[in-house]
Amino acid sequence: MEEANKGLEVVTALRNLMDTVKHRIHQNFKGMHITAPQGMLVRTLYRHGKMKISDLSEKMGLSNSTVSGIIDRLENQGMIERKRSQEDRRIVYVDVTPEFKKNLEVHMREVDKMLENIVNSATTEELDDVFKGLHALQRIFDRNKE
User: Fold this and answer.
1) Fewer C-beta within 10 Å: the chain N or C terminus?
2) Domain total for the chain?
3) In Å, how far are 8, 35, 76 from 93, measured between CA atoms?
4) 79 in helix, strand or coil?
5) What are the start-end ranges of the H helices in 30-123?
């Protein structure tokens, strides 16, 4: 097999895996009536606390305008709130509302448990192979930073 095809196969396999993970997580958030990107945003805020939109965009790998649109929709649903910094009024932070945080905690535990159960179904040898492969892939990408 040509090297270019192998590279494409690696990227395709990673994309397929991420799509599968997103789909499983989306299934859990369906009961909350939020989309997968909205779920990703609230999960990020839940894990890291209040953030500036630019920091949230960077962490999610999405543009500021895309994240702003997601925030607008979540804010309209009462799930997210914007707060101006007391030190610098130009800075706006985004956070999960206290009311929504209670509901979110239950769903986050369910998602974590679901992912834990999936990984726990692997054999020790399978997990060793996964870690070995992921570490090798990380080394390859680190060598080729550009």
Assistant:
1) C
2) 1
3) 39, 22, 16
4) coil
5) 36-48, 53-60, 64-76, 98-120
Amino acid at 145: K
With a threshold of 0.70, does the pTM exceed it?
no
Which CATH number characterizes residue 16's domain? 1.10.10.10
* Domain span holding position 89: 3-143
User: Using one digit for the tens of pLDDT, what is the confidence trace for 114-139?
Assistant: 889 999 999 999 999 999 999 999 99
Neighbours of 99 (CB within 10 A): 11
Q: Name the residue among 55, 15, 100, 82 with its Cα closest to residue 108.
A: 100
Residue 54 token pair: 């630019």
Q: Look-up: residue for tokens 């499983």?
A: 24
Q: Give bridge partners of residue 80 from the DSSP assignment.
A: 96
